[in-house]
Design a protein that fits this description.
3-stranded antiparallel sheet; Beta-Lactamase; single chain; alpha+beta; elongated; 5 strands; 162 residues
């Protein structure tokens, strides 16, 4: 096991420091990372890393790829980031959403698949439209219903049923 990423501060809460060490390792990885690698990167015991990741995943701050079992930053982090105006995804995507809206004359939504739910990340609507603007991460819908599902699935390659 590597040394802890940060020096412990007097009067601090060890579990909080460990959680942030792990979360920072997850963010810095920039991609899905196996449990054992995250443990080394964060300088934490494997069991502690696993328990903290279980909590972060349950709360949406981390996510686990069902096939590789590797962990990545969860979409709830983007929700928080957008609330403070720091979401680069929206800055990059918004011009493309507007172009598509102008070309089609329709409301355009940016959605992200989060396991079995679709998270509405952004929406642009033509003036005079009665579409409701949504805030990032607030509107979540089941992938089993709605137009976003059909659009999402139309771009997916068929996979064998499990």
């Amino acid at each position: 096991m590597a040394a802890p990423k940060t020096q412990r501060t007097a009067g601090s809460v060890q579990s909080v420091e460990r959680t942030f060490d792990l979360f920072e390792a997850l963010v810095e990885a920039g991609q899905a990372v196996p449990l054992s690698e995250l443990s080394v990167r964060a300088g934490l015991p494997l069991g502690t890393t696993h328990r903290l990741l279980a909590t972060l995943t349950a709360r949406g701050y981390a996510r686990q790829d069902p096939e590789s079992r590797a962990y990545a930053v969860g979409y709830k982090v983007m929700d928080w980031a957008s609330r403070v105006g720091a979401n680069q995804l929206l800055e990059v995507a918004r011009p493309h959403l507007r172009t598509l809206m102008h070309e089609t004359g329709e409301t355009v939504n940016l959605v992200i698949l989060d396991h079995t739910q679709i998270v509405y990340a952004d929406q642009v609507a033509p003036s005079g439209s009665c579409a409701c603007l949504r805030k990032w991460g607030i509107a979540r819908r089941s992938i089993r219903r709605g137009r976003a599902r059909r659009c999402w699935l139309s771009d997916r390659s068929p996979r064998p049923a499990r």
